[in-house]
Design a protein that fits this description.
α4 runs antiparallel to α8 and α8 packs across α9. The chain is globular. The protein has two domains: 92 residues, no CATH class; 77 residues, no CATH class. It is an alpha+beta fold. The strands form two sheets. Strands 3-4-5-6 form a four-stranded antiparallel beta sheet, covered by helices on one side. Strands 1-2 form a two-stranded antiparallel ribbon. A hairpin with a 2-residue loop joins β5 and β6. The termini are far apart.
Length: 222
């Protein structure tokens, strides 16, 4: 009886683990699945962008982000102007920051660490609170356990523009991705495009990883 019970428990545990792995795999597959760019997207972008992306494939994640961004852009949150933005010195958190971003946000750039192989990255603070960390090789999140948020897009628009518009940040990203200026110049009207449109236009660029929104802000700022 004891052997039967143990065998039953082993089978149950294995079955549960297999189901979990199948769910995880399905989730990953869904995220990476590509579809032809829907007609509603093509109809909503400038003609120059439409001609460039028509017939291309887009990931399901990219398309979902596009829909979310369109909704946000239709209902923008007005920035809370709280304090003047300074370029090189932080009045918000001088112990941890070098650059002010306004609205009590600030950030610093940390160098690469040869022992941990960590690339150049930025730490973003709101007052004294560590808010977000971003690698400058692929714009992915770093120091996840220390972050208050886990998506670049959850930062205020002025903060996203401030970080990606910083020349030192741009220099470091380009050092890792020398073709980034070319990617930007290959997207017509990029300086005037909404982030949602640039996210779709990224189907013609070989950006590393899938941080579409961060790359859209960066390329528009170059």
């Amino acid at each position: 009886m004891k052997k039967i019970l143990i065998s039953f428990l082993i089978v149950t545990i294995l079955s549960t683990n297999i189901q979990y792995l199948n769910v995880q795999a399905a989730s990953t597959d869904s995220k990476d699945e590509t579809i032809e760019i829907p007609q509603d997207v093509l109809n909503s972008v400038p003609e120059e962008i439409k001609n460039m992306i028509e017939g291309k494939q887009i990931t399901q994640e990219q398309y979902d982000l596009y829909l979310e961004l369109v909704d946000k852009e239709s209902n923008p949150v007005l920035p809370n102007a709280n304090g003047e933005i300074t370029t090189y010195a932080s009045n918000v958190n001088p112990k941890n920051c070098t650059y002010d971003l306004g609205s009590n946000y600030c950030f610093r750039i940390d160098p690469a660490n040869s022992s941990t192989k960590e690339p150049y990255h930025v730490h973003i603070y709101k007052k004294q609170v560590h808010y977000y960390c971003m690698r400058l090789d692929n714009l992915k999140e770093c120091d996840k356990s220390k972050n208050q948020i886990h998506k670049f897009d959850d930062l205020p628009d002025t903060v996203k523009k401030g970080v990606m518009g910083n020349k030192k940040v741009q220099e470091r990203v380009i050092a890792y991705n020398p073709n980034a200026p070319k990617w930007a110049s290959n997207i017509p009207l990029i300086k005037t495009l909404a982030i949602s449109v640039i996210v779709v236009a990224l189907v013609v660029t070989p950006i590393p990883g899938d941080e579409y929104i961060a790359w859209a802000y960066l390329l528009r700022a170059l």
